Amino acid sequence: MRKQVRTTTNCDDADAKSWLSSPAPSDAGSTGSSKSVRISESDDHMKPGQYAPHAPIRPPKKVLKHVWPEDSLFDDSVPIRAAQLAIEDIFIAFIRAVKHFKCPQRLTFSLEFENVLVLVNAGKNVPFIEQLTKLGALRTALANIPTHGHDQVIDRHQVAVSAVERAILKMRDHQITLYLDFIHQTFICYVETFTFPSELGFSSNMRDASDLPHTRRKMIIIDQFNKLDVLRARLAGAGRYAEGQLKDKLMSIDNAIVQFLQEMAQHCDYLYEIFGRPMNARLT
């Protein structure tokens, strides 16, 4: 004999039949209308998969599992993605480096270095050298990233390389500009301090004006010639990197130096004409 305990509510029988599909009330003391609750006592036992005695057994639900492909960690997409991320990291580092750097208005140069791009690692040069070092490191890092022949990686890699190269070239042009200013200012200082001696100790037995006697005045004029020759040599070194307006600026400075050298040579010729040539040669 089946015993039933039924609590009646305002819900109809149709609502009572759906109790299993409805969520249990969250508050036992709530005052709203509640669904019917049917407690069944029976000698029949429910088997796994049954919701009630004599109900058809439902097959167990399938559990969805994420299946990783066997070669997913070793396929071609992994190194390509790694290359893309490496390039993007370099881009971020490049943007930060360029954003926080301001080119100096002056650098310290030395005529002792034949290579005009060599800087003394001190004073105002330090931030400039550090920036060049950073950009050089980024360029090296980019060169070590394989593109795997992937079009997107190749394009992005070329964009990154071009950006870094342009930044380095811009800094080099700025350095050459400041170097030309340094050469020009040095030349002006030379002109202001150089002397044109009134006599060089020529004698009538000398072959020409280049055959200067070994005197103190001779050493002074030779030192002046040598200093101007050094300036021209450094300008020639800078000419390997100067283009466009920089090339024009370089040529203008070099022409000024050449003109001054000619004036010094003419002065020596004049002194030779006065003191070095034999009297009969001077009269002809």
From TrEMBL:
Residues 1-57 are annotated as: Disordered. It comes from the Eukaryota. Residues 1-11, 19-37 have a biased composition (Polar residues). Residues 38-47 have a biased composition (Basic and acidic residues). This is Uncharacterized protein. It comes from Thanatephorus cucumeris (strain AG1-IB / isolate 7/3/14).
